[in-house]
Design goal:
By secondary structure, the protein is of the alpha/beta class. The protein has helices at about 20-35, 45-50, 75-90, 100-115, 135-140, 150-155, 200-220, 240-245, 275-285, 295-305, 315-320, 335-345, 345-360, 370-380; strands at about 10-15, 40-45, 55-60, 95-100, 120, 145, 165, 195, 225-230, 255, 270-275, 290, 325. Helix 1 (about 20-35) crosses helix 14, helix 3 (about 75-90) runs parallel beside helix 4 and helix 9 packs across helix 13. It is elongated and about 65 Å long.
């Protein structure tokens, strides 16, 4: 008798960028914890590679966003799609789970639909913000969607989608907010901690790093003891950032790779790129200003298709301009410095913004999101 046991619980998980890699890895761990017989094959990034049984490709390091940039990635995507198609046909996975990254993942969902593989979207793309017609396509391609904002299930239901909100998965990763007191004895002489988050994709890093650094230098003229921290991803090359700064950095400036949000949670104020970073800051209760600078053709297209009144997730969820947004030509060192100095001159503003951000955290559910999603998926598959 053969000792070979067919894999009956093989699940394929696909993510395409750094934040998707983190969320997907959390879900993979939760699936395997809930059912040790589950075998996961994945396409994503380093975190997924560590959590999976089989890893096909590091797509997260090659991710592209926007409207124009992904076109450059098409040859790579086509090659990878062929590999995934072959996997589906030879291994016949019991389920497909995709994470965000609509441009690539909706095509993978189409392959799964054709082969009658039940598909789940964990961290649904923000189709409510632009190109809402995509919601109808998602409804036809997925068995269930796990949204990350409480208003999304109602939006998807209008298009026939089966969507549930189990909480925002960032809550599984971020620590509870630290106690903070902005009452400082002398705000002009105080060593304010100014953090900078220039992003995870090379395009935004190139556009924002020099702007953020120059803003810090302007802040120093009024607040000479300000300490600046530029937060890099764990595998980022520091020299790239030093080259973008273009000079020997000021003694009060440092590049940091933060583990577990420990240092970021200590910041007094942050200069942040748009995207997930703004929501992370809100969950940590750290006040911020948001800068949004796109590749020029992408910006022109974005202006035409974006259907929401704000760029940052924090303002969208608050339904008001809680944090200042400096977009494209307004995202200058002078304007970022002015916003920062207005906060340092009036610490009560920092206190008020922090209070509003912590209210937002309370609206996004409780930790344990990946566990709840894993339990729902496994329950579904048991009843298939």
């Amino acid at each position: 008798m053969s000792s070979f046991t067919p894999i009956t619980k093989n699940i394929l998980v696909i993510a395409g960028d750094v934040s998707g890699d983190i969320h997907a890895a959390g879900l993979i761990r939760a699936l395997k914890e809930a059912d040790p017989d589950v075998r996961v094959t994945s396409v994503g990034g380093k975190q997924m590679q560590a959590a999976s049984d089989v890893f096909l490709y590091d797509l997260a390091s090659k991710g592209a966003s926007g409207f124009v940039e992904p076109l450059k990635k098409m040859p790579l995507w086509i090659k990878l799609m062929n590999q995934i198609r072959e996997y589906m046909e030879t291994q016949n996975p019991v389920a497909l789970i995709v994470v965000d990254f609509y441009g690539f993942n909706h095509q993978i969902l189409g392959m799964a639909k054709h082969r009658r593989i039940p598909a789940y979207y964990y961290v649904t793309p923000q189709v409510w913000a632009s190109r809402q017609y995509r919601a109808k396509r998602l409804a036809t391609l997925t068995k269930k969607m796990f949204t990350i904002y409480p208003f999304e299930p109602e939006f998807h239901q209008k298009f026939g989608g089966n969507a549930v909100f189990l909480g925002n998965p960032l809550l599984d990763q971020l620590p509870a907010p630290k106690d903070k007191n902005f009452k400082v004895p002398n705000n002009k002489e105080y060593a304010w901690k100014l953090g900078m988050l220039p992003g995870s994709r090379m395009g935004e890093i190139k556009r924002l790093t020099p702007v953020f650094y120059q803003a810090f230098k302007q802040v120093l003229k009024e607040f000479p003891n300000t300490q600046a921290y530029m937060f890099l991803l764990p595998d980022a090359d520091e020299q790239t950032f030093l080259n973008l700064i273009g000079e020997k950095p000021h003694a009060n400036f440092r590049l940091v790779k933060d583990k577990n949000y420990e240092l970021r949670s200590q910041m007094d104020f942050l200069l942040a790129c748009s995207g997930t970073a703004t929501l992370e800051n809100a969950l940590l209760g750290v006040p911020m200003v948001v800068a949004y600078k796109l590749f020029w053709p992408t910006y022109q297209i974005a202006k035409m298709v974006i259907k929401v009144p704000y760029i940052s997730l924090v303002n969208l969820l608050s339904k008001k301009p809680l944090v200042k947004e400096l977009i494209q030509y307004d995202a200058t060192p002078r304007s970022l410095a002015a916003e920062t100095m207005a906060m340092f001159q009036n610490p009560a503003k920092l206190e008020a913004m922090r209070g509003e951000l912590l209210k937002l955290r309370a609206s996004l559910g409780e930790p344990g999101v990946a566990k709840r999603a894993a339990a729902e998926i496994l329950r579904d598959l048991t009843h298939e």
